[in-house]
């Protein structure tokens, strides 16, 4: 076989195996191998590393598309100094993702604007970057989706969907009243993930008030029982980040008025 034919054959092997990035890099790596006098092992390693990196990037992009995260936040975007109500050490410990290993849950509890969604999103992103399947939803969307599935006879498929991800984020529990069968759908999702995979939940409803928020004390108790059995509860009781600029504007205004009066 001539060298030219062998080269064509090699290219067609790459394309048959769909190693497109390696195929594209092939001429460059062969040139480098000649110029730098690389060993065969070194050249092959360099070539396949290109394909591996591209595959990793593609898979991560796919996982992030699937995850439906509301924003591209990472923990680096969270300003701990601006939120004294958050225990930074605890959040950094959660960011090691140890909680995924024993299927522990994380509950972010606090008033609006304190960064619950942001922290949940950052942990979810870290989980996806570590190679896991993640899905982000709100409690209201989850309830609506389960309700639709039940009506259309796809309940089992819907339950399988929510059982699948290594990490499920359920945002904003308690902001909106859940529709009729919403609490029971939520309970079933939590129950089937219990001890198998982690769930992060954010809520503005203090745990003591769950029974009233759900309308059904029995379901609330059963759900809390599953959720809290292995869980980290992160209470955030600080100032609203959203209202920060309003706060400083109104503070300035007040000072100006007071100065004028006195
Ligand atoms: P919550 O879910 O508790 O209502 P969010 O996570 O949605 O609050 O935060 C509200 C807004 O304030 C978002 O735009 C978020 O990025 C921002 N924010 C909140 N806390 C912080 C913080 N500590 N550092 C930086 N941005 C923050
Ligand atoms: Mg939120």
TrEMBL record:
Q: What is this protein called?
A: IS21-like element helper ATPase IstB
| Residue span(s) of domain AAA+ ATPase | 102-234
Q: Which InterPro entries match?
A: AAA+_ATPase (IPR003593), ClpA/B (IPR001270), DNAC/IstB-like (IPR028350), IstB (IPR047661), IstB_ATP-bd (IPR002611), P-loop_NTPase (IPR027417)
Keywords assigned: ATP-binding, Nucleotide-binding
For this chain, the family text in UniProt reads: Belongs to the IS21/IS1162 putative ATP-binding protein family.
A molecular function GO annotation: ATP binding
GO process annotations (BP):
DNA replication
């Amino acid at each position: 076989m001539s060298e030219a034919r062998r080269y064509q054959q090699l290219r067609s092997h790459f394309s048959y195996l769909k190693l497109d990035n390696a195929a594209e890099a092939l001429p460059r790596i062969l040139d480098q191998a000649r110029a730098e006098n690389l060993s065969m092992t070194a050249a092959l390693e360099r070539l396949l590393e290109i394909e591996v990196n591209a595959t990793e990037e593609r898979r991560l992009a796919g996982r992030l598309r699937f995850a439906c995260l509301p924003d591209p936040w990472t923990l680096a975007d969270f300003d701990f100094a601006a939120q004294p109500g958050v225990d930074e050490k605890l959040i950094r410990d959660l960011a090691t993702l140890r909680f995924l290993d024993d299927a522990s849950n994380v509950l972010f509890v606090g008033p609006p604007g304190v960064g619950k969604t942001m922290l949940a999103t950052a942990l979810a992103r870290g989980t996806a970057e570590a190679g896991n399947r993640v899905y982000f939803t709100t409690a209201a969307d989850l309830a609506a989706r389960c309700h639709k599935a039940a009506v259309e006879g796809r309940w089992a498929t819907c339950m399988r969907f929510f059982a699948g991800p290594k990490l499920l984020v359920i945002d904003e529990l308690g902001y909106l009243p859940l529709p009729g069968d919403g609490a029971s759908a939520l309970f079933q999702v939590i129950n089937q993930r219990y001890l198998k995979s982690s769930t992060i939940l954010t809520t503005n409803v203090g745990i003591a008030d769950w029974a009233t928020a759900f309308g059904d004390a029995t379901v609330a108790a059963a759900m809390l029982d599953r959720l809290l059995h292995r869980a980290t509860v992160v209470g955030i009781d600080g100032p609203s980040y959203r209202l920060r600029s309003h706060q400083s504007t109104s503070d300035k205004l007040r000072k100006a008025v007071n100065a004028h009066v006195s």
